[in-house]
Amino acid sequence: MTDSIVSEHAGGVALLTVDAPGSRNALTLELSSQLAAAVAAAERDESVHAVVVTGTPPAFCAGADLSALGAADEAGLRAIYEGFLAVARCALPTIAAVGGAAVGAGLNLALAADVRLAGPHAKFVARFLELGLHPGGGMTWMTQRLAGPQQAAAMTLFGQPLNAEAAVRAGLALRVVEGEHDELVAAARELAAPAVAAPREALLATKRSLRTTASLAAHADAVDVEIEPQLASLASPEFAERLAAMRARIRARP
């Protein structure tokens, strides 16, 4: 079978699977390009409210394809990054369903998502220095931001891997989902359900606000960022409909 990104849009969720089991889902230039295109397609599809990224078992993603990496110049490196950076830039909420090893660029792919769910066999591994390679793709920034400087140093400088439970303790994963890969993906879909139920424009605006307020120092500045999109949502027909439905439910209570 040809390695590919398998994209399925169903139930308000775009499920994007890195399907290259022969290489443990290593990212080639072609797969990175396909992943970026699949993310863009999900953003264009107005029925999609959330994106779930996963890999064909047993791995999540073993990193960048070594042949592509060994021959890469700056343009080549940036092309390898493009798949996981598309996930990082995605306007929609994103979930990484990490069922196996996420190594190097695969770690970057997992960290690029808003939330990570870990299967019982998940492993989060930097492995750059083990190959004599400086980290790339923003790994040092993402890891420090999510897990703090000490855990980032342990992973990056000292090669310490994190299993599923350790990733949860470090803040890299939200929780561990026991069971097989299908159960992990089902848990990701369940996590996405409130986003699927939300009005899409309010959802997109909320993610934009999260990104903006993350770098602010003052509460008052966050209030200013949020007030315009909140006013827009107050004026929306979706809010009016949901408010009327809630009032009707309250009136119907005994």
Automatic annotation (TrEMBL):
InterPro entries: ClpP/crotonase-like_dom_sf, Enoyl-CoA_hydra/iso. The keyword ATP-binding does not apply. GO terms for molecular function: enoyl-CoA hydratase activity. Its EC number is 4.2.1.17. Transmembrane segments: none annotated. It is an enzyme of class 4 (lyase). Pfam families: ECH_1. Keywords: Lyase. This is Enoyl-CoA hydratase. It comes from Amycolatopsis heterodermiae.
